[in-house]
Predict the 3D structure of the following.
Amino acid sequence: MKLLSFAIPCYNSESYMKHCIESILPGGEDVEIIIVDDGSTKDRTAEIADEYAKKYPSIVKAVHQENGGHGEAVNTGLKNATGLYFKVVDSDDWVDIDAYMKILEKLRQFKDEGSQVDMVLANYVYEKEGAKHKKVMRQTGFPKDRIFTWSDIKHFYKGHYILMHSVIYRTEMLKKCRLQLPKHTFYVDNIYVYKPLPYVRTIYYMDVDFYRYFIGRDDQSVNEKVMIGRIDQQIRVNKIMIDDVDLKKVKNRMCRRYMYNYLEIITTVTTILCIISNTQENLEKKKELWEYIRAYDEELYKKLRTGVMGIVMNLPGRSGRKIAVGAYKISQKVVGFN
């Protein structure tokens, strides 16, 4: 069995996918690389995928499908995965070789010892175009270099949430939770991380800068203007997260608290994008989202609405919206996202 399966969703990725693939190939026979060509039509993405599969037949698989979006490409990667662990790497990102080797060594140790670790975490680095300082995002507050459970975590810091870039899941656990991401929808990485969390029993955090997250292209899905243009998809993901997991049924208290914090952050992001757009239509969508939450779970609504972020994001009037935007801009500078 392979130690680690990588899924690389590709859509018209000719100009950067080779860098991504080449960064993963040093894993050799311990890994499999599943390149999912998600219906690319404008460039040589499909050909490049086939070239790598032909050159490295025991490591690389090329899978071609009709365009279904990022989520469907991840679904396909997971269906084809045979490794003990599973990792998604977007085609414009890459991994750090030194951190990569350390992670493979640790996964090999887990396998040899028979340790069943459901979620392995590492740091990711914002490779922001034009930025001299590369922001490293760590799993603040999590125990390092030992297997731990949710109950071993003493405190969650406000604003800390696991991104797809941070996480390696045990493949069998992912399949057990029946993870299925929606087609033709952006921002499904939040569902990918969020939905499996109640199934996670054991965690391991390595304080290494593994994932290099490129950010800065004008057409990138996390570009603020692009996100505002796709606000309906952000809202859809937000609602799916609310619908898919009843937090009251999450047995572990700390896991439940973490998932609440995660949902709070995503709801805050959705809300602020509606505010920044400064259109009456999107302000109505913001109002409808909060009403949706209230109709789904009055207790959850009250908790989200009366928290610090909920209060700031729902301050009344134009001046209230200016304060909300100002708080968001400060967060951008501190964290370095978008």
Notes: The longest helix spans residues 253-277. The chain has a mean pLDDT of 92. DSSP finds 13 helices and ten strands in the chain. The beta strands are 4-10, 31-38, 60-65, 85-88, 94-95, 119-128, 135-137, 147-148, 167-170, 203-215.
